[in-house]
């Protein structure tokens, strides 16, 4: 009898060690923040209750980031900066850290990314949905006021010149993604997919079975389809595209990604840019910036900034597909798209 108990205990120990008793069901969560539905799929640690605590904390934080960073919410740090009339404003540590990184990225991208594009975004009606086409004169005046280098950040104090406004719409989801990954890891979650709306996704580890996560890349010409699949493991991915938010007038499509130089929708010949990188902030910010730059300049930026550790996939308005060389082995065309040509950028 005693022998049997010992061998049963030994078998149990071996099973546990092999991971066989680990709960294979994901802990899931859905929340609405930053104007989009966010979905968490978490595979634990040993303790399912702890994974659930991690999920609840993450969901709470996502809503909190939104309250902190949304230009639309009256009480957010961003709204307080925007009403400051040139006076210094104290913001919380999280906002200051994001601003610091975002301002550095604005500079690094030569202004293709510019967090002070807000008045132009508003003028086109993208914040309210009441779309309009500003006159050439109005656009020139708006473009004149877009200049992230005029934002001062000292510690947690932000000073923004009068007449300017900031909008973190191009970077906030990426930042939230990186913060969520940190939370997941601190709760012992080794495998997770953090989907912050269709355009920003963070993979923690690989799938529970050890294989990489397989994430579809939206076809900008047919946004209900995926034209490619990217394999991700401890990696983030972000897509910016003209198809995500736009309006049409007199047969012309006007989208929500603006060229800070003209204050008008960026017409660079691209219809979508997907960035794959360890940091979700890099993915979110660069997908917007590279969209503004256009293929040639974006490819050059990729060659010149290996330290950012990013790879990219471009789709032109003609439907041509380009990808950077570093995606070898991680990129494949989806079913129905296998005959499409893909140009590899070196
Ligand atoms: P999404 O929000 O759909 O993921 P992006 O990350 O590309 O898309 O961000 C686009 C948002 O960023 C716009 O809705 C606008 O608020 C803002 N924006 C537009 N153009 C720029 C730009 N050149 N630089 C910084 N922010 C921008
Ligand atoms: Mg972005």
What's the mean pLDDT score?
A: 93
CATH class of the largest domain: Alpha Beta
Would you identify the regions where 5 or more consecutive residues have pLDDT less than 50?
A: 9-21
| Helical proportion, percent range | 25-40%
* Class computed from helices, strands and strand pairing: alpha+beta
CA radius of gyration: 22 Å
Second rung of CATH, namely the architecture of the largest domain? Roll
One letter per element, helices H and strands E, the order comes to HEEHHEHHHEEHEEEEEEEEEEHHEEEE
Beta strand count: 19
Q: How are the strands of the largest sheet arranged?
A: 1-2-6-7-10-15-16-17-19
The CATH topology annotation of the largest domain reads as T-fold
- How many strands, which pairing sense, and closed or not: the largest β-sheet? 9 strands, mixed
Task: Walk me through this protein's architecture.
The chain has 346 residues and is an alpha+beta fold. It is 33% helix and 27% strand. The chain has helices at residues 2-17, 48-69, 77-82, 93-108, 118-123, 136-144, 172-186, 280-293, 295-304; strands spanning 27-33, 36-43, 89-90, 152-154, 157-159, 191-195, 200-204, 213-219, 222-232, 235-241, 246-249, 252-255, 258-259, 264-265, 270-277, 311-316, 321-324, 331-333, 342-345. The chain has a nine-stranded mixed sheet with strand order 1-2-6-7-10-15-16-17-19. A three-stranded antiparallel sheet has the order 3-5-4. The longest helix has 22 residues, at 48-69. Mean pLDDT is 93; it is low at 9-21. Bound molecules: adenosine-5'-diphosphate (ADP) and magnesium ion. Adenosine-5'-diphosphate (ADP) binds at residues 113-115, 117, 121, 126, 167, 169-170, 173, 199, 240, 244-245, 256-258, 260, 284, 287-288, 292.
